[in-house]
Automatic annotation (TrEMBL):
<protein>
    <submittedName>
        <fullName>Glyoxylate/hydroxypyruvate reductase A</fullName>
    </submittedName>
</protein>
<dbReference type="Pfam" id="PF02826">
    <property type="entry name" value="2-Hacid_dh_C"/>
</dbReference>
<dbReference type="InterPro" id="IPR006140">
    <property type="entry name" value="D-isomer_DH_NAD-bd"/>
</dbReference>
<dbReference type="InterPro" id="IPR029753">
    <property type="entry name" value="D-isomer_DH_CS"/>
</dbReference>
<feature type="domain" description="D-isomer specific 2-hydroxyacid dehydrogenase NAD-binding">
    <location>
        <begin position="102"/>
        <end position="274"/>
    </location>
</feature>
<dbReference type="InterPro" id="IPR036291">
    <property type="entry name" value="NAD(P)-bd_dom_sf"/>
</dbReference>
<keyword id="KW-0560">Oxidoreductase</keyword>
<keyword id="KW-0520">NAD</keyword>
Length: 309
């Protein structure tokens, strides 16, 4: 009985500890190793070397270490019949909601500007916004987006969402599809991106999108770096169409030292920490799926390979 961990650039030792403390009977293998590849039916993965999964002829399931699965689905050599699952976890969901709330509050009270003033010992009170002054629009009303929207709503913000399909969430209008995107954008002063990365959503944070927002809008990207066209953001900030941006995810991570986002006075950068998977709690649900697979039962948290999320 063994499970394979496959990851590039992520320390897998917390995952080994979490799996072994739950299931001491399971052998945890880390790719690459020399043990027989035929033994592996279940892999847990983050950012795997592309093409590796075709080496495992009996692989049935790949579990993402996080909520996103773009890092798995982008592999052109992914074996066809393998089921992909992801993590949905109350910690992950709440952490994302507290992060996005913190960024919206920071924007509302202009706190980042005070940090810059403090560095120059400059005492300058500024006017600030209140909840009723603006509407927050959340792109992607799935597990993370819906909770982020609901936590903001509870704090008295006007909140709306945009998804592929309509939703029935109390006091939060949710617009759907391309037809309703323009209205959603035109009425969102703060735009939070919590979409999965798919061919349809890649580059969605672009000049055309930004121009449809109210002048002086604020953009928060906590989804994936590939959602954002970086040069379009810089242009819209320079023109004043956007007042600022808070970015947690980037096309290249870590964000290279020479990248213009670091020094930009209107951009706040965080190092992909909006919501970090806790291996101890994620391993429990991933192991449930391992057991289900072994017993021939239906898996949970399955991703649609056609939809891409
Ligand atoms: P879900 O799959 O639960 O939700 C996705 C949402 O996006 C759904 O509401 C879906 O609509 C909507 N959507 C998908 N495609 C489109 C489209 N083409 N047009 C409009 N709406 C669309 O994802 P999660 O909420 O769990 O996670 C979202 C993303 O957050 C992850 O994929 C990951 O990339 C990112 N993430 C970032 C983290 C960080 O630390 N920065 C941590 C964890 C995740 P519908 O409901 O109608 O299907």
């Amino acid at each position: 009985m063994s499970i394979l961990l496959v990851s590039r650039g992520r320390d897998v030792s917390p995952w080994i500890d979490a799996i072994q403390s739950e299931r001491p009977d399971l052998e945890v293998r880390v790719y690459p190793d020399t043990a027989p590849k035929e033994d592996i039916t279940f892999a847990i993965s983050w950012n795997h070397p592309l093409g590796v999964f075709k080496e495992f002829p009996n692989l049935k399931c790949i579990a993402s270490m996080g909520a996103g699965v773009d890092h798995i689905l982008k592999d052109p050599e992914l074996p066809e019949n393998v089921v992909i699952t992801r993590v949905t976890d109350e910690h992950l969901t709440n952490d994302m909601a507290t992060f996005t709330t913190a960024v919206v509050l920071n924007y509302m009270r202009g706190l980042s500007a005070y940090k810059a003033a403090e560095n120059e010992s400059h005492w300058q009170p500024k006017p600030y916004l209140r909840q009723r002054d603006f509407t927050v629009g959340v792109m992607g009303m799935g597990v993370l987006g819906a909770e982020a929207a609901m936590q903001l709503k509870k704090l008295g913000f006007s909140v709306q969402g945009w998804a592929k399909s309509h939703k029935n969430i109390e006091a939060i209008p949710v617009y759907a599809g391309a037809d309703e995107l323009d209205y959603f954008l035109a009425t969102s002063h703060v735009l939070i991106c919590l979409l999965p990365l798919t061919p349809e959503t890649a580059n969605i944070l672009n000049k055309t999108t930004f121009e449809k927002l109210p002048e002086g809008a604020y953009v928060i990207n906590v989804a994936r770096g590939e959602h954002l066209v970086e040069e379009d953001l810089l242009e819209m900030l320079d023109k004043g169409q956007l007042a600022g941006a808070s970015l947690d995810v980037f096309r290249t991570e870590p964000l290279p030292k020479e990248h213009p986002f670091w020094e930009h006075p209107k951009i706040d950068v965080t190092p992909h920490i909006a919501s970090v998977t806790n291996p101890a709690s994620a391993a429990k649900q991933i192991l449930q799926n391992y057991d289900r697979l072994t017993m021939g039962e239906p898996l949970i948290n399955i991703v649609s390979r056609t939809k891409g999320y």
